[in-house]
Amino acid sequence: MKYQEKTVANYVANNIKTAHVFKKYGIDFCCGGGITLEKACENNELDINVVMEELLEVGEVIENSNDYNSWELDFLIDYIVTEHHAYVISGLPLLSEYSNKVAKVHGGHYPYLHTINKLFHEVSNELVSHLKKEEEILFPYVKKLVDIERNLENEKLTPPFGTVNNPVQMMEEEHEHAGDVFKEISRLTNNYEFPEGACNTFRALYDMLEAFEEDLHKHIHLENNILHPKAVALENKLFGDLRRN
Question: Nearest-CA neighbor of 116 among 102, 130, 131?
């Protein structure tokens, strides 16, 4: 596939290490990863030859344990839940505590901290609901598809959502919203650059927000660019004719 046709998501799905190059240049590889590299460079006013050179220098994925694109879907789901969902759930309470404290103590001098606090708590509540929907609705259905393909189950699935495309679309819309919120938080914090003389809690908040956003990008990439399209393809393979009727 020529680079003019290959999407940003393709690069990262084939080699997760390329995500670092895209992050460096501010190219969205999760929610906005569906555009070609050429278009992404054009949108960000980047020289595609410079970006391509760095992408070519990125080492190939050697260990299969890091090659997410080759994993079975049920294994990938378990990884997402244990690594990324657990990270979100465990990190939110402390982030909430820091965000509230920093906004209260320093919001007078830095009014944007109140906006950050509000945005964080809005997206925090949405993420908790989002993860629950994935774990109770979408993920179990995809695992059943995998079992059927392996002939471990013979039942015909009649999901209440009609086709996996519907929850996938909903999840991706929510991913996009969460990504947009963190883009705004990143903008308000000047890419998490805390002001001179900031106290340790202030610094810790920015550090945790930046790490949280980075994990969210990887999390969304695994779902939007690998899990979801493969789940849709698997359902079509198993029940394509039934879904069209």
Answer: 102
